[in-house]
């Protein structure tokens, strides 16, 4: 599963390398900041779209493999068959899959609008716009937005298995996911939270480790300089010193007797820019392996959830398992015993 996920991550790896190259070209001045910003923006947008598309491909392929392992246990998994089936449905994954992802954010926006406008219109005549009415409405709107995002994401979590295993697309696939999730809502919600929290925790820990390591090797303590000896009452000298700073961005604060804190808002030097670029590069490189492992793990969760919800509704798995049952080749004794146990458990029929 990890190797399969790594294979589908090749386009994302290429786009990430392009982002890194653009950052370094911008740093050394090979290309202008405007050109680099446009290139980085386009690459980041492509990375988001490709990540969503590849995630649906990985989930669909792994769902096929998990179902195949139930149909013919102890037999080598036919990865080529799964990839061939995913290739046939790549347009549906690109359309329905990405649309279902966007629909979660649309639901969050709609819920935020409703959650903000209704309390604001109720509290506005009472508290006015200068009071805390906008703040209360904003908090309620954010809560509604989070609820809308999670609700839509959970209800559409099984769109990819429906596309891969049942040849559905568009609203039919999303409606099928909705009905399957309703059969086991608590399990689907728990699975989604696991899928959501694991990558968030892993990315947060990796970002924290990279930043804390950089600060440990490059400490920059604040420097307090002693005040220069100036005659008392000579305010013109201090004013002149403050006015002589370039661009007017330096300021001095006198603390007690004999100490002055000076600060200057200057552009980051080349060393700081290089350090920030290297940190961003290291973070992107370290997050790629984590993303590969996490997506393969979450795809297995979705596949098992799909099979569980089908069984919860009393739907037989014969129509799915029959896709992988090979009846043309003669079976060995151990294969026949496994087949008889599957027939007794009701997973397959004697005619499949």
SSE blueprint and pairings:
Elements: H1 2-8, H2 10-27, H3 33-71, H4 79-88, H5 90-127, H6 133-155, H7 159-166, H8 170-183, H9 185-217, E1 225-226, H10 235-243, E2 250-255, E3 259-264, H11 270-312, H12 318-321, H13 333-345
Antiparallel strand pairs: 1-3, 2-3
Verbal overview:
The chain is mainly α. The chain has one domain (2-221, 269-345). It has helices at 2-8, 10-27, 33-71, 79-88, 90-127, 133-155, 159-166, 170-183, 185-217, 235-243, 270-312, 318-321, 333-345; strands spanning 225-226, 250-255, 259-264. Strands 1-3-2 form a three-stranded antiparallel beta sheet, with no helix packed on it. Helix 1 crosses helix 11, helix 3 (33-71) packs across helix 4 (79-88) and helix 5 packs across helix 8. The chain is globular. The two termini are 28 Å apart. Mean pLDDT is 76; it is low at 226-251 and 254-266.
Please provide a brief summary of the model.
About 11% of the residues have low confidence.
Structural class: mainly alpha
Number of beta strands = 3
Largest sheet: 3 strands, antiparallel
Number of helices: 13
The number of domains: 1
Residue fraction in strands:
under 5%
> What is the helix content?
over 70%
Could you report the average pLDDT, rounded to the nearest whole number? 76
Q: Measure the end-to-end span.
A: 28 Å
Radius of gyration: 29 Å
Instruction: Pick out the low-confidence regions.
Output: 226-251, 254-266
The strand order across the widest sheet is 1-3-2
Shape descriptor reads: globular
Task: Note the quaternary state here.
Answer: single chain
Strand and helix order: HHHHHHHHHEHEEHHH
């Amino acid at each position: 599963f990890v190797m399969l996920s790594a294979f589908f991550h090749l386009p994302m790896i290429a786009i990430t390398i392009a982002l890194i190259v653009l950052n370094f070209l911008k740093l050394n001045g090979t290309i202008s900041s405007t050109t680099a910003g446009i290139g980085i923006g386009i690459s980041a947008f492509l990375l988001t779209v490709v990540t969503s598309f590849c995630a649906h491909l990985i989930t669909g392929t792994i769902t096929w493999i998990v179902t195949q392992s139930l149909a013919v246990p102890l037999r080598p998994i036919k990865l080529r068959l799964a990839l061939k089936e995913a290739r046939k449905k790549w347009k549906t994954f690109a359309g329905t899959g990405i649309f279902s992802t966007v629909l979660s954010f649309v639901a969050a926006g709609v819920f935020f609008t409703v959650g903000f406008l209704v309390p604001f219109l109720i509290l506005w005549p009472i508290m006015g716009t200068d009071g805390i009415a906008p703040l209360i409405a904003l908090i309620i709107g954010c809560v509604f937005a989070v609820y809308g995002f999670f609700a839509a994401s959970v209800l559409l979590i099984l769109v990819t298995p429906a596309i891969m295993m049942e040849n559905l697309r568009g609203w039919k696939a999303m409606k099928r996911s909705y009905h399957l999730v309703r059969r086991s809502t608590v399990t689907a919600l728990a699975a989604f939270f696991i899928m959501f929290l694991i990558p968030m925790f892993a990315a947060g820990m990796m970002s924290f480790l990279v930043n804390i390591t950089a600060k440990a090797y490059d400490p920059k303590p604040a420097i307090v300089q002693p005040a220069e000896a100036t005659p008392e009452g000579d305010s013109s000298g201090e004013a002149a010193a403050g006015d002589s700073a370039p661009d007017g961005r330096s300021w001095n604060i006198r603390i007690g007797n004999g100490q002055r804190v000076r600060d200057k808002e200057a552009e980051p030097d080349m060393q700081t820019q290089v350090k920030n670029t290297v940190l961003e590069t290291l973070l992107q490189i370290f997050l790629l392996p984590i993303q590969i492992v996490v997506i393969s793990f979450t795809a297995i969760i979705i596949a098992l959830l799909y099979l569980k919800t089908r069984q919860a509704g009393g739907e037989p798995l014969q129509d799915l398992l029959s896709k992988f049952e090979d009846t043309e080749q003669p079976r060995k004794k151990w294969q026949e015993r496994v087949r008889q146990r599957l027939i007794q458990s009701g997973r397959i029929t004697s005619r499949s």
